[in-house]
Design a protein that fits this description.
Length: 307
Amino acid sequence: MGRIQQLENNILVFFRNIYKAKLFELEDGKFFTLDLFLQLIFYAVIAYVIGSLISRLIRKTILSRFKIDRGTKEAISSVIGYLIAGIGFLIVLTGAGLDHSSLTVLAGVLGVGIGFGLQNISSNFISGITLLFEQPLKVGDLIEVDDLKGIVEKISIRSTVVRTLDNIFVIVPNQKFIENNIVNWSYRDKKCRVHVPVGVAYGTDTTLVTEALLAAARRHPRVLTQPTPKVWFNEFGDSSLNFELLVWVDEPPSIPQFKSDLNFSIENELNLRDINIPFPQRDLHIKNPQDLIQLFQGAGNSKVSDN
């Protein structure tokens, strides 16, 4: 039993020494230990949680009273939350006995660590700050980057959450929005023009086609009256006269469903006017029809002889 007790004591002493180990010396003669490091992490988490709670409270109680869009509310509350968390962490550092000179040394050590091992994290962090302040995209915007198209649900310091039109959530690093071209369908003005192509059979009265397409646009409740809907006669296609209906909407996220509803309405208006949508047509030209006739005659004679 004595040896076991001694072994347990040795293990406790070993871990106590690691816990109190001096990692590096600060300028004021103090030492940065693992104990102090864990305490700072603990208090930093508390400061972040408090900042998040205050941010959420400000968004729901104060910002909700102002007539500003959802994206601006999210950006303001996020910035306030991060500022509160940062100030709280500085207060914690000061309370732990670290003066300005010690903070300078600590910042230098962290800067070296960020430079070598945390390049992506630091880049995404700076990109997140840029997105929150410049607001090239906001929460609620319909965006398109590379092959991803969806609605911005949340912008945090490291990443942005995008909900696709199929209700799938994609977490995208903030750096991607800084380095790549972004199509923001909701930037500044949410109104956008939708193009709906329609092909009709040759010989159809073009005035009737225009009337049908405009009637379908007027019947849809989400089509804006200003700017007014327009019909373009684009081209004489291989099998059809190709038109295009152009309408304006103010809810970009629901454009796919909107186009489907509008197509149903267009099909109904065309049927009411007996306007046909043609199948693709091809003309077949035979250079030597006599050779083809002889080929078929030969095939028929062989069948007769077999019988």
